[in-house]
Structures are given as structure tokens and as C-alpha cells.
Design brief:
about 170 residues, Jelly Rolls, seven-stranded mixed sheet, three-stranded antiparallel sheet, 12 strands, globular
Length: about 170
């Protein structure tokens, strides 16, 4: 059985069926930190070649505290296959807010290479709203990744809790 996953310990192992069959690509932690983008594939089965539902997103990475604080707030919109992947060094309970956002999004919470929760259609705040009045959106369990995509897209492409997640960094 082929397993599709990314594992962060001292090195990252990415199994990429798209470009390399089932051969692992070994990348050092330093190499991963230099990556700026990733392709995130969500599917209903671990082996994407057998999956009935597959969604792929070309995403920007938010790895540092500064990148995570800014998030998508400097974007005016998102293409349907674009997004941002927030990458954390260890699993933790996380809260997000929509400060500075110009458009609504879906927030997909990921742990152990599976979708564990989806916060759909999170609205952008009205202009002039004080920071203290902004809503926050939290993970229901500790996660190591958070994927933000265009609002309504998760429902549109059939992303569900329990779906497998494969990440290819580049």
C-alpha cells in the first residue's frame, strides 16, 4: 500500500506519485524552509491513483511568524486552485482571524495528513472594524497545517473531514 504524507522530524520525506512514482524525495529541514510554494492534494483515499475525489491547490507557504501573521491579507483575491498553507513545526491548537482580509475563505485544518475540520465561508471583516471586535476561528484539535482556499471551494470540490492530504514542496 502506498502512503502519501509529509513527515517533519529532522528531515522531511515526501512521497510524490505525480512526478516520482512511489519513490521518496528526501529533503533536509533547511531545504524545506527555503521552499516558497507547495502543491496540496486532498483525496478520499491514501492512494491517489484509486481516489474518486481529488483536489489540487498550488499554494504559497506561510512558515515564519511574520508570514503567518500577514497570511493572505496582502492579496485582493484568490484563483480557484490557489491558496496558502500555514506550516507549523509541531502540532498545536491554533486560532486565526481575518484582520486585513479583502475576501472570504474556507479554512481547512490538517493533522496527521488528514483533514480534521473545515471552517467554511469565513467572511472578510467590514472595513473599520476594531481588532478587538474581530471573530477568531480555532482548530478543534492540535494541527500542524492550515490550508486557506477561496470561499466555498471546499464544498465545491467535495473536500470532507477524513480526506487524505499530500504535500509536495517546491
Amino acid at each position: 500500500m502506498m502512503h502519501k504524507f509529509v513527515s517533519f522530524v529532522l528531515t522531511a520525506i515526501v512521497y510524490c506519485s505525480v512526478a516520482h512514482g512511489t519513490q521518496p524525495i528526501y529533503q533536509t529541514k533547511q531545504k524545506l524552509l527555503s521552499c516558497e510554494h507547495a502543491i496540496v492534494t486532498l483525496s478520499d483515499k491514501a492512494d491517489v491513483t484509486c481516489a474518486t475525489t481529488i483536489s489540487r491547490f498550488n499554494v504559497e507557504l506561510a512558515r515564519t511568524a511574520t508570514e503567518q501573521r500577514i497570511g493572505l491579507s496582502e492579496h485582493l483575491s484568490l484563483n480557484e486552485d490557489a491558496g496558502m498553507l500555514f506550516v507549523y513545526k509541531q502540532r498545536e491548537l491554533l486560532s486565526f482571524w481575518m484582520k486585513g482580509m479583502h475576501f472570504p475563505i474556507d479554512i481547512i485544518w490538517i493533522s496527521d495528513h488528514r483533514v480534521v475540520h473545515i471552517t467554511p465561508e469565513v467572511a472578510a471583516p467590514n472595513s473599520g472594524v476594531e481588532d478587538s471586535a474581530l471573530s477568531s476561528y480555532s482548530s478543534i484539535q492540535s494541527v500542524e497545517y492550515v490550508l486557506e482556499i477561496r470561499s466555498g471551494r471546499a464544498k465545491e470540490v467535495g473536500i470532507r473531514v477524513g480526506d487524505f492530504v499530500q504535500i509536495l514542496f517546491y
